[in-house]
């Protein structure tokens, strides 16, 4: 029979992650904790307590273990973001940085709604961040995704990465279905630059929208694009995908000032207002 401190029982509790023994900060006895990735900060070790001393300190052992798993999930997500771009610092992106008060409010509501959603319901949410290059669209995307991704299945990439540009057309729908199924947080950067032929691109977007629509769990979709509104986006992703995506992803912009040059894109602002539906303008 498996004992309470055996590797098998610890593995079951922690989802079969690799564990290591860390000394209790109070007595030095070994405590099993999820192993961190090589080269990552290990200051968390200083806070580890054995069950007896955790109880004496008023810390529930299960809660401490869950916190350790959350820390591991957060570090894994940071590594994922750095793989997307190692120098941009997107792993630090926060909704507080978004220039537009209206858009930051939309993003906060999006995060809160997904967090509060019943995991067994088909909640759909999202935002399409539009505007010219340099205004912080990608950083705003990561501001939303960073808040939701740790502990959830997330996928973030360029349009061609998400739409499986490396897959032949006859396998495309199946590949998209396999790639998107189970994803709870989906970020697609720079929509409008895919190298696929228009018919293949629209097939891929339709397959993506179908998978998101069928998901039995909450899904949040965040897009960035230089395309001006849902008319242009519909021409790009196809009418079937656009009819679904536009219902989940209102148009918004993180701001109108190019962060590199300081230039304000007033015409883009006017174009967004013209492209938005009345209910989007009033959000």
UniProtKB/TrEMBL annotation:
It comes from Rhodococcus opacus (Nocardia opaca). Keywords: Plasmid. This is IstB-like ATP-binding protein domain-containing protein.
């Amino acid at each position: 029979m498996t004992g309470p401190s055996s590797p098998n029982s610890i593995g079951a509790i922690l989802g079969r992650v690799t564990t290591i023994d860390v000394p209790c900060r109070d007595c030095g006895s070994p405590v099993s904790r999820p192993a961190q990735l090589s080269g990552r900060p290990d200051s968390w070790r200083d806070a580890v307590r054995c069950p007896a001393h955790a109880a004496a300190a008023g810390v529930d052992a299960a809660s401490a273990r869950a916190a350790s798993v959350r820390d591991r999930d957060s570090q894994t997500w940071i590594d994922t973001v750095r793989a997307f771009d190692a120098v941009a610092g997107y792993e630090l992106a926060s909704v507080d940085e978004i220039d537009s008060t209206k858009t930051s409010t939309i993003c906060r509501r999006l995060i809160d709604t997904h967090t509060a959603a019943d995991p067994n319901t088909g909640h759909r949410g999202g935002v399409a961040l539009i505007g010219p290059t340099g205004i912080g669209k990608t950083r705003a995307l990561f501001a939303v995704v960073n808040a939701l991704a740790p502990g959830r299945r997330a996928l973030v990439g360029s349009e061609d990465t998400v739409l499986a540009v490396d897959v032949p057309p006859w396998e495309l729908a199946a590949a998209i279905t396999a790639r998107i199924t189970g994803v709870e947080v989906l970020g697609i950067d720079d929509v409008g630059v895919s190298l696929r032929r228009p018919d293949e691109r629209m097939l891929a977007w339709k397959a993506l929208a179908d998978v998101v629509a069928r998901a039995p769990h909450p899904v949040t979709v965040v897009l960035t694009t230089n395309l001006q509104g849902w008319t242009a986006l519909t021409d790009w992703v196809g009418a079937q995908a656009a009819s679904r995506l536009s219902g989940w992803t209102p148009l918004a912009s993180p701001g109108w000032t190019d962060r590199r040059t300081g230039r304000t894109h007033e015409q883009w602002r006017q174009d967004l207002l013209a492209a938005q539906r009345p209910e989007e303008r009033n959000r």
